[in-house]
């Protein structure tokens, strides 16, 4: 009887999750496309130069606040969803108790991050000096100026994370996923204006536009939060507040975990500053391109699943958690493998087509392509890591991910030293070490999960082996197809467009057919949906 009820719950909620996933995917694609256009504009105007390096170095701490801490899957979003979804239940009614908890969290977040923003502004020189100690004095000075301009973003990040979590708890997926688009649009407008008037040789207008974009992002989210029923009334009632304590128990280790993860980026920044000019810009662009497809996948499937994980954990329904996890991660694996294939086959052609113009030359194309290809190996462990982390958070455990992230720092230093300084792999060494550290994180999180719940990895990884074999055969066929295309003489852009779309269609079709031959359910479900549409 209990098993029948379990199946009924799963079948009732799965269509809602899939519908939400499609909706979030569409909105995220639109937002990512605008972000991609922003990166194209930045590349066109600033290239891979001292100015772009300074901006991207300075952007790391504001990015930590607004993307890592405050973004989807960040500590603030995760803490709000984990605690509020249990309090709200299925009815999602905002009562006085929930409003007080919201205001306590919001008030303390504002005060803490406002103080950090002031510290960032006052000590910008010293902070940048630590991050890029191997850089030139010109790079250090310019990065410090950029960081001063963008330091208020530190305050904005935490608040955006709270708003994001609140909206997701109430199944409002569109606004939080559209709001990053606003930041990109403001940055594009600022760069275009600077280019028109030839006034931004130092990149300071780019930094200012980034700050204004973050302000617009939070202004877009707030009306929706207020419409749900939340009102801002500053409240410092955090003493003997069990629900606030639950938030802090999850939030504090999660912030430390995210910050520790960011230390890995600072390690990369240090090693990149020892390489040629434009090295760090190349790594940043590779990460941006990587996040375009992967971010869509992770956001689309995990945003609607996380509140369900949290509610089911509160109800003690392990069977449903196991079912949702295996289905969700299986779909992510199925979609991730062709992304790796297409990156390995088409990275240089795609980057050349999209970015090679203005100050972004052929040398920059090669640098970014090299970084991206080695980073692509992290996609499969990346989606597994982010998925299983949501299960830890659903059980109010952010300590385990934190401790694993701490242990990964030493591995990151050793790998960077070995790959970059000993093997002289340069930019490729930075992103290859990132892929290996991501694999380590995913493996350790998977091993320690048995302390919470047995997730039954056997079927999941048997299916992964089958999909990897199908992917390997597809990669070989795609490589031969690319060799044939490279013998065709066509004008540059026509050749790149023809090659990219042809190889993409052929490899995706072959990958799907092979998975159908191997009787993979994911391929069958995809085919059914395509026929239905």
Supply the key terms.
533 residues, 83% helix
Written account of the structure:
It is built from 19 helices and no strands. The protein has 533 residues and is mainly α. The protein has two domains: 2-455, no CATH class; 456-533, no CATH class. Helix 7 (153-169) packs parallel to helix 9. Mean pLDDT is 82; it is low at 1-12.
Short recap of the structure:
The chain has 533 residues and is mostly helical.
Would you spell out the secondary-structure blueprint of this structure?
Layout: H1 2-46, H2 50-69, H3 75-88, H4 96-122, H5 124-131, H6 137-150, H7 153-169, H8 174-197, H9 204-228, H10 242-272, H11 279-315, H12 318-355, H13 362-375, H14 379-394, H15 399-422, H16 427-448, H17 457-485, H18 492-517, H19 521-532
Helix pairs in contact: 1-8, 1-11, 1-12, 2-6, 2-7, 2-10, 2-11, 3-7, 3-10, 3-11, 4-7, 5-6, 6-9, 7-9, 8-9, 10-15, 11-12, 11-13, 11-14, 12-13, 12-14, 12-17, 12-18, 13-16, 14-16, 15-16, 17-18, 18-19
Instruction: Provide the structure class.
Output: mainly alpha
Sheet having the most strands: none
Radius of gyration: 23 Å
Strand tally is 0
Along the chain, the helix and strand elements come as HHHHHHHHHHHHHHHHHHH
Q: For the terminal residues, how far apart are their CA atoms? A: 36 Å
Task: Report helical residue fraction.
Answer: over 70%
- State the shape: globular
* Annotation field: number of helices: 19
Q: Please give the domain count.
A: 2
Q: Tell me the fraction of residues in β-strands, as a range.
A: under 5%
The average pLDDT value, as a whole number, equals 82
